[in-house]
Amino acid sequence: MNILFIEDDMIETMKLKRTISKLQLKHNITEAKNGEEALDILQSGNTLPDIILLDLNMPRMSGTEFLSVLKADEKLKFLPTIVLTTSENRADLLECYRIGIAGYVIKPLKYEDYETKLQSVLNYWDNNELVKG
Ligand SMILES: [Mg+2]
C-alpha cells in the first residue's frame, strides 16, 4: 500500500519504518510532519495514498484540523484515515469519529506491542478494497 504517514515526532517515524522493514512488509511510506505538509502533498501529487496514518498532536496544523479539511474536500474525503496516537482522551476520540475516521489506534508504549498492533492494522487495510485514487 501507499501510506501517507503524518507525524511530527521523528522517533515515531523511525519506529514505523523499522516495523515495516523488520516485518518485511511491502508498503511505501510518504512522510509529512504536520497537517499542512500533508495537505500540500495531497493537493499537489497526482497519485493519492491508499490510507493515511494520522497523529493528533502536531504543530502548525493538528490532526483534527487536518481531518476537517480532508473531509470537506470532494476528492480527498474518500481516503481511509486511521488515527495513530498516544491520546486516550475520549473527547479526541469522539471528535475524530464525528469528523470521519476509519479507525482510532492507541500506540502501545512497549515496542513489541507496537509492532504487533501495527502489523494487524496494516494487514487489515491490506485486505480491504481500496479507493485507488
Ligand atoms: Mg505528535
TrEMBL record:
<dbReference type="GO" id="GO:0000160">
    <property type="term" value="P:phosphorelay signal transduction system"/>
</dbReference>
<dbReference type="InterPro" id="IPR011006">
    <property type="entry name" value="CheY-like_superfamily"/>
</dbReference>
<feature type="modified residue" description="4-aspartylphosphate">
    <location>
        <position position="55"/>
    </location>
</feature>
<protein>
    <submittedName>
        <fullName>Response regulator receiver protein</fullName>
    </submittedName>
</protein>
<keyword id="KW-0597">Phosphoprotein</keyword>
<dbReference type="Pfam" id="PF00072">
    <property type="entry name" value="Response_reg"/>
</dbReference>
<feature type="domain" description="Response regulatory">
    <location>
        <begin position="2"/>
        <end position="122"/>
    </location>
</feature>
<dbReference type="InterPro" id="IPR001789">
    <property type="entry name" value="Sig_transdc_resp-reg_receiver"/>
</dbReference>
<dbReference type="InterPro" id="IPR052893">
    <property type="entry name" value="TCS_response_regulator"/>
</dbReference>
